[in-house]
Amino acid sequence: MRLTTIAEHPESVQRIDQQTLFHIDFEWWDLREDEYRTYLYNLLCDKHQEEFGYVDDRKHKLFDWVNPQTGEVFSIDSIEYAVRSHCSSQEGYITEGTAMVDSVFRALLANGNQPLTIKQLASCIGRVGQESTILRMLRGSKVYKGLRPL
Ligand SMILES: [Zn+2]
């Protein structure tokens, strides 16, 4: 067997720049389902955390979620639904103290995972001027919270 190098497959090297759109890759999360549910649970507001109670309840219901921009309908579970429709608009959902990677995830989730550029992300998470830091985080070889270029 022979190792192939990146140079032999230039098409596999993705160009990432200011125009690149980023989104949450839910396929990445599919492999980490338990982790995802715990992570999502932590995005709930106090009221909803109480309502959903035990995080490991697998009998969650599916809801239809209509993307307001495209009209596309998705099935999402009840926790995700609560985050998008309520908790994400509560104060404290994204704060200055929220880790950058979490802020990016929260912003994307709240907007129905509409892919955004680095510039748009920076503005969504209140970090205008820190675009290069966000870009560095998102284009690294490690994938954080399923955040990937489109
Ligand atoms: Zn809530």
Structure overview:
It is a single chain. This protein has seven helices and four strands; from the N terminus they run βαααββααααβ. With 150 residues, it is of the alpha+beta class. The chain has one domain (16-149). The strands form two sheets. Strands 1-4 form a two-stranded antiparallel sheet. A two-stranded antiparallel ribbon has the order 2-3. Helix 6 (118-124) packs across helix 7 (131-138). The longest helix is centred in the C-terminal third of the chain and has 11 residues, at 100-110. The chain is globular and about 40 Å long. The two termini are 31 Å apart. The structure holds zinc ion (ZN). Zinc ion binds next to helix 3.
Question: Summarize this, please?
Answer:
The chain is α+β, with helices and mostly antiparallel strands. Helices cover 37% and strands 11% of the residues. The chain has one domain.
